[in-house]
Hints:
Elements: H1 3-16, E1 19-27, E2 32-41, E3 47-55, E4 60-66, H2 70-79, E5 80-87, E6 90-96, E7 102-105, H3 134-139, H4 154-170, E8 180-185, H5 191-203, E9 208-214, H6 217-230, E10 235-239, E11 253-260, H7 262-273, E12 278-284, H8 288-292, H9 300-305, H10 307-310, H11 313-333, E13 337-343, E14 354-360, H12 365-382, H13 387-394
Parallel strand pairs: 8-9, 8-11, 9-10, 11-12
Antiparallel strand pairs: 1-2, 1-5, 2-3, 3-4, 5-6, 6-7, 12-14, 13-14
Helix pairs in contact: 1-2, 4-5, 7-13, 11-12
Amino acid sequence: MKNENIESLFSDIIERRILKKAVFSKPDDKQIIKSTVTPYKKPDGTIMLRLERFTRDNKAYQQNLEYEPSKLASLALTEYKQTNIFTTAGDIEIRRSKSGSTHVSGKLNDKSESANITAHNGEKHYILDLSRDIGFLHELGLADKNGRIHDKKQAKFRQINRFLEIVRDIEDTLPSNRPIVIYDLCCGKSYLTFAVYYYFTYIKERTVHMYGVDLKQDVIEYCNEAAKRQGFKNLQFVSGNINEYDPPEAPDMIISLHACDIATDIVLYNAIRWKARVILSTPCCHHEMSKQLSIPAPDAQMRRDLDFILSSPILKQKLCDSATDALRVKRLESRGYSVTTLELIDPDETPKNLMIRAILTDTNTHRCGEALAEYKRICASLGVSPYLDKLLNENEEKLK
Length: 400
């Protein structure tokens, strides 16, 4: 069959929207095993093609293509010696010889229904669309210029999308009649800062004023330059101690990912002090309580009852992790927050996986008092004095 006939065949398949999948095998490039092409639908209804190339070093490279026939014809005519096309009108096989001549087996029915095209052909649909949101992902080193997430950054990409899902779940609690003000405390390299800013500004088309705060001056300089290159004009980064930081605008939401040990308590304290409507915090590295549980407790019987856990260093640390965050939840409830704990991503990917989601909903004095009384009772039984409680007690006047 002549090349123009192959091109006409793909044009017919695309025009009729009958393509289910195309498999390209026997490649000219021996480093490649095969490639597959499947159609998928973007959230706005636009149909695209997802090209996935499998290589002999056990890697897969993805690329998003326009829903048109030229690339498919090029693959069949110049890169692969065998092409199998699966459609709702029948299946076709194309074979290309060393001389370049082609032979086609199979035939398409004249009448058939369009293929059922879903988001990524039934695969998990992420909030960030790699056919659209490449800019900042490439800027931060998560993706290449073609929109493929680097192998070592796949877990980070999933984590970012999961975080955005959590943001999406609470966005109706944020103000709708003015710009949203968000702070990322202990922001580090600021993957989440950029993602949340991008989500509200470009996906939800809201005006957001966002600030990232961290001690590392070199990281802050890098983030400010990256924000400038991306044209994120309302995204700013500041170098400083978050416990001494004076926010230029009252926050609607505070986020923080993996602030280490008592840094999480400092984040929560400032979020309470600034009366943030929403707090999203993922704690990390719980050391404080472990040290305190090494000191004799007033409630000796309680300690003896826990000895079957405390006698094992690993189990003791797990207990301290859970107890520290449970007490943080109870202390937030004592300040009028409704609190939920969530898993950020698959626990197999990171042990630092707990998300504390707090929404300021209830400042009822009685209910807050009950939560505080229970908090104090538990602390007394364990013989611990959490740093968050220390900050709140020492700065009671600032909280009024």
